Structure formats: structure tokens, C-alpha cells
Automatic annotation (TrEMBL):
Family: Belongs to the methyltransferase superfamily. NTM1 family.
Keywords: Methyltransferase, S-adenosyl-L-methionine, Transferase
EC number(s) reported in the record: 2.1.1.244
EC class: transferase
Gene source species: Loxostege sticticalis (Beet webworm moth)
Reactions this protein catalyses: N-terminal L-seryl-L-prolyl-L-lysyl-[protein] + 3 S-adenosyl-L-methionine = N-terminal N,N,N-trimethyl-L-seryl-L-prolyl-L-lysyl-[protein] + 3 S-adenosyl-L-homocysteine + 3 H(+); N-terminal L-prolyl-L-prolyl-L-lysyl-[protein] + 2 S-adenosyl-L-methionine = N-terminal N,N-dimethyl-L-prolyl-L-prolyl-L-lysyl-[protein] + 2 S-adenosyl-L-homocysteine + 2 H(+); N-terminal L-alanyl-L-prolyl-L-lysyl-[protein] + 3 S-adenosyl-L-methionine = N-terminal N,N,N-trimethyl-L-alanyl-L-prolyl-L-lysyl-[protein] + 3 S-adenosyl-L-homocysteine + 3 H(+)
Record's protein name: Alpha N-terminal protein methyltransferase 1
Keyword S-adenosyl-L-methionine listed: yes
Cross-referenced PANTHER family: AD-003 - RELATED, ALPHA N-TERMINAL PROTEIN METHYLTRANSFERASE 1
Length: 241
């Protein structure tokens, strides 16, 4: 099996984002006007997780692929005591504190890791990993390995949240400009299974404009009854049984 079936190039992706301005419109690819609707949908989803029988604590979350800290500021800081950040672009990491603003809010920002997710190795236990519009920059194998590292770094009742575009065609679609892919819903579910993660909640973002990819939110926890399938295939036949 090819380790990079879709020819994802990490250096090309970094070069693309190096030219993007550190603004909401920049990080959202010209769709800055959807930010409020997006945050509202995420807050509703997060509230549903907090109201579950075994909710995550609200101590520490991590914003993975944070950009300028849009999600950190508007979603995670209001809900958690501390938020760590993972973002490889130095221009964005240098902009985060100014974007977040306010000494009270800035004081809740924890460690900023200037590294790509394929290289991120969590150093603590997190209540929530928030991954949004970033996993398409990882190869299937690196994404699976990354999710395993997240899974193993969850606090008690911790949850991995994934919020990503999915294709309507059911096939993987490549964006040559930034060397990213948009996966199908089926492929995401296979990858979650291969990372030994159980999907406990899923919903579709509403009130987005027509003509863009559907966006789904997933809440994932460790599948505790089985060991990770070391021989799992994430293309072709699903061997995670």
C-alpha cells in the first residue's frame, strides 16, 4: 500500500500558507463570513458533549492546526481553563496573542507548539483535542498515527473532536494549490476505526452557504475493548474487524 496515495506534500502546504495573511478571511480561504455560524455550530456540539453522562472536564484543551487562534479565542478559551496550540506557520503563531486580545484571555493560552500535526507528540493529557479543517493535510498513515497519539493522550473522559469537510461524491478529492485532500465520510470512518477510536457523536454543520463541501463533526473516544489493529488497511477493503 502506498504511504502517500494522494501525493500530499507537506512542504508545498507550508509554502501555500506562508503566503496567506493572518486574518480570519485568510485562514478561512475567503469565507470569513461563515466564522460566526461555524463557531455557533461548534459550541452547540461542545455543549452536547458536556451534557453527556460522562463529560470531558473543562481543564485543558488543544487547538490543533490553530492558524491565528480563531477557534481558540471564540470557542475553546471560553470553555476551558487553559488551551494549548499546535500550528506550524510562524506568522500565525506570532499573531495568536494579539488576535486573542485581553490579558485575561492571553493568560489562559498554554504552550504553543510550532510543529505540523504529523510531528506533534502530546506532552500532557488533554480533555479535548479540537481538529478542524486541518486533517486533509495529512496522509492516511500519518493521520492514523496522529489520532493514535491523541487517543493515548486523553484525560479521563477525554474526547477527540474532528470537524472537517467531506466530499459529496463519496470519493477523495485533491486540491493541488495547497496539497490537501478532502476525504469521504466513509474514509474518515475507516481511519477512526483503524486508530481504535469509537465514534460517540456525529452531526452535520448547518446554515453554511450552498456550494461548499458538507462539514461534519465527530466526537471520538478510545475503543477500549480491542487492541489497535497494527495491520489495519485504510484503503480498499476495511480490515478493522
Amino acid at each position: 500500500m502506498s504511504k502517500n496515495k494522494y501525493d500530499i506534500n507537506y512542504d508545498k502546504a507550508l509554502e501555500y500558507w506562508a503566503d496567506i495573511p493572518p486574518t480570519i478571511d485568510g485562514v478561512l480561504g475567503g469565507f470569513g463570513f461563515i466564522s460566526d455560524v461555524d463557531i455557533n455550530g461548534s459550541q452547540i456540539f461542545l455543549n452536547s458533549l458536556f451534557s453527556d453522562e460522562n463529560p470531558p472536564s473543562r481543564i485543558v484543551a488543544v487547538d490543533c492546526g490553530a492558524g491565528i487562534g480563531r477557534i481558540t479565542k471564540h470557542l475553546l478559551l471560553p470553555n476551558f481553563q487553559s488551551v494549548d496550540i499546535v500550528e506550524p506557520d510562524e506568522k500565525f503563531t506570532n499573531s495568536i496573542e494579539d488576535f486573542v486580545g485581553g490579558d485575561n484571555m492571553k493568560s489562559k493560552i498554554g504552550t504553543i507548539y510550532k510543529v505540523g500535526l504529523q510531528e506533534f507528540k502530546p506532552e500532557k493529557k488533554y480533555d479535548v483535542f479540537w481538529n478542524q479543517w486541518v486533517l486533509g493535510y495529512l496522509t492516511d498513515e500519518d493521520l492514523t498515527a496522529y489520532l493514535v497519539r491523541c487517543r493515548d493522550s486523553l484525560a479521563d473522559n477525554g474526547i477527540i473532536v474532528v470537524k472537517e469537510n467531506v466530499t459529496s461524491s463519496g470519493k477523495v478529492e485533491k486540491d493541488e494549490a495547497d496539497s490537501s485532500i478532502t476525504r469521504s465520510l466513509k474514509q474518515y470512518l475507516k481511519i477512526f476505526k483503524c486508530a481504535n477510536l469509537k465514534r460517540i457523536k456525529q452531526c452535520k454543520q448547518t446554515n453554511f452557504p450552498s456550494g461548499i463541501y458538507p462539514v461534519y463533526m465527530f466526537a471520538l473516544i478510545p475503543q477500549r475493548n480491542n487492541d489497535v489493529n497494527k495491520n489495519c488497511s485504510i484503503e480498499g477493503k476495511d480490515t478493522c474487524n
